[in-house]
Amino acid sequence: MNYAEPPTLRPRVAVTEVGTRDGFQSEAAFIPTADKAGVIDALIGAGVTHVEATSFVSPRAVPQLADAHEVLARVARRADAHLSALVPNPRGAERALGAGVDEMVSFVSASETHNQANLNAPIAVSLAGVAEVASIARGRTPLRGAIACAFGCPFEGEVPVDAALRVVDAYAALGIDRLTLGDTTGMATPPTVARLVQAIGGRFPQMRVALHFHNTRGIGLANVMVGLDLGVREFESSIGGLGGCTFAPGATGNVCTEDLVYLLERSGVPTGVDLDALIAVAQRVEAIVGRTLPGQVMKAGPRLRRYSIDGARRAVG
Ligand code: ZN
After folding, report:
1. 137 C-alpha vs ligand 1 centroid, how far in Å?
2. Whole-prediction pTM
3. Is 317 part of any domain?
């Protein structure tokens, strides 16, 4: 990696915002539909081009996202903004297509125990469901395959690279060429990221890989840098660091979108996102959920934010 200052310009990266799905689904209270759509509009206004907007999960299973169709109907659609949605089953896929999503996302865990806990089925049964979704999607909308617990499982511990590769094999056999590696409980480390990304790149050079890290142990952005160095050009994150995984013990927030954009832009990687506008969206989301979010750049401000010396606290250290 070249750490020149000012940073040399590197290839553009796509930041996929997942907060309105991954974040709002974990909120105890139902977030009003107008607020969800308003946040998505504001994110797109800030320059975010990819938003995982919602999930077409059963409203009984996740009542927080029962308004998936209405959210997509309210968002001001733009040709330069791609809206995706999670689809846990064929019924969800039909609903997502009806709402006009630009991409559907299927998901399976690399860990048998987590898959059972999250989806109430063995991995093989879930993959049969993905095959049904793939046949519904074919010729209508692109399908992404996500892998939960790709870097570790809260129940099983280490997840072997081969376990993740078996899921990628199954996805590739269905014609899926977009992949998200999810670090559901923040267990990824720089070496495990490198190992899995390189293994997938070696076996499936055509596969477009996105990385979805959680900052559970404080090294989400370090893992992003490893992915970036290995040529990954898509990262998923959540505004303000909202969210986690409802079904995984110990899971906390996703990598924060403003912090990610700050890191990328300061490293010479264009994102197309306006950081000040993004910080304003994060503050709006804080007001919506009614609590302080973990994002750090939204509190400190951009790097060259300057303060008046009057009233500055004097301290050493
Ligand atoms: Zn997440």
Report:
1. 24
2. 0.94
3. no
